[in-house]
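Why this split exists: single-chain examples teach little about how molecules sit against one another. For that reason, every record in the complexes split bundles all components of an assembly together and asks for one structure covering all of them. Below is a record exactly as it appears in the raw files.
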Amino acid sequence: MKIIVCVKQVPDAKDVRLDPKTNTLSREGVQAIMNPYDRHALEAAVRLKEQHGGTVTVLSMGPPQAEEMLREAVSCGADEAVLVSDRTFAGADTWATTYTLAMAIKKIDDFDLILCGKQAIDGDTAQVGPGLAERLDIPFVAYVRKITDCTNNIIRAERLMDDGYDLLEVPLPALFTVVKELNEPRIPSLKGKMRAKKIEITRLTAVDIEANPELLGLKGSTTQVVKVFSPEMKGARAMLAGTVDEQVAKLYEKLLPLL
Amino acid sequence: MDYFLSEEQQMIVDVARQITDEMIIPQRSELDETEEYPREILTAIAKADLYGLYIPEEYGGLGGGCFEIVLALEQFARGCTGVATAFAASALGAYPIIISGSEELKQKYMPLIASGEKLAAFALTEANAGSDASGIQTTAILDGDEWVLNGTKQWITNAGEAQIYTVIAITDKSKGPRGATMFVVEDTDPGFSYGVKEKKLGIRCSSTRELIFKDCRIPKDRVIGRIGMGFITVMKTLDQSRPGIAILGVGLGQGALDEAVVYAKQRVQFGKPIISFQAVQHILADMAIQVEAGRALVYSAAKHIDAHKNDMSKASSMCKVFATDMAMKVTIDAVQVLAGYGYMRDYPVEKMMRDAKILQIYEGTNQIQRNVIGQELNKEYTRSS
């Protein structure tokens, strides 16, 4: 079984600071970690490999520093690591990111299952997993809390819902995004650390993945961030008086201009 | 202080530290309370490859020496000396096979111990054989193709949890010290059972029980080394393993120092954090000096042992005495710094103080260690004069 795990380097949530001028996350001097949900995806992949054989490839789109996180993933059991890195990727929203990752995965070509964390703790969009599945045109399951079994190219998984779970049966190849209830990620092993130190990380650029430059980075992004601000807590309120009918009428009048 | 570890040695420290911080420290208080064997933690240690640290590569280990296992044990003991003891006990049980065992025994048992799939334990002590190992009464008699063991071993660490036991028994009483032999006993051997679990002052999550041999029959080829060489194997084993106990004192002392300094910085009395008072500062300073001195001695002794296999006893005993006496003193001081709070189970230092005591007792009391050092000095100065 060939599994690709998409991982993202994010600032450590214990140490979040905002740039006071731009209101964006300040990444300077902040410890970078592997997105916590991606850890669970990696652990699931390594366990599937231990049960069924195969390989685990970790894939990240990010700056050259993300190599450190990929090495950590190797120390936790990944076999191969691929970093898609190019200046033209800068400013990518989830639309451009899924395009870039999809092109990289098409380059890697051979896979049965793609696992991602349900969302990254910095952007919190939860869009990259489903977007990527759409671009690759493969089945997608969100919020996977348990992978029950995998035989004859059919994988069964439980999807966490508000009021229980759904049991789904999906043909491979497929893409899952996972929740933290899925497993307890392992601590890196000594042999893993030694391997991680030596492993050659595959670096792919925009040219390598044969991407259309128009669709990359800020240029290829449909989301443009105009302004980032903390909403002011005004706490303004108004009490409506009168009978219930009168109150409803007054409320209707107030709401109407807002529509 | 920087001890200029190699990259590989630093990795050992990092892996062991992560296990300690993420698993051992959060669980230690409950493990102490329930006296439950820390299986989940030991499984994580096995998965992290640390059971194979000191085992040669040809038997599935990582080929490290005394120094490498010391680095891992130091971290574990910083978290919990009970967990560290449970881990170290397997190495103590494995050393006799590594030191004196036949190629067949090594091939058979070492890969299992290196992977952590099976745990080992070492069985020397008996009711009448503690510091005086010549008081051993367990016997082994050859009957056809089998050895038949009879007797009871006492206070055996990992008893009931391990699957592989290295046991010393008398094979020829008339030969005195040359009449004892070491054997491998497996948990499934007929006639082998365990006594009740002991209730201890400290290191409560480690298992301490009797081994009972009642016409316990084992195959002839389970002899470790040559017949009659059991005591020599025991002495070499203990020389090799003692720095592992010494470093538990260093790790434990470091853990106590960490707790004491953190507390002294936040505890306010007379309007100031108590760390601003010289009376407290001096206690902390003395603790720090002793922990660092202990670490320096144990590291040096471990490196000496890795380089000089035929001259281990004095270095091994010296570091054991110094670092474990240090741990007792430093943990008592930590309780003093935390005072009333330190005496309560809400803080970890009272457990650390209880855990420290055993270090001065097991694997040879500190009085016996001083005998060894004294005898070695006598020999050295006789040779040089």
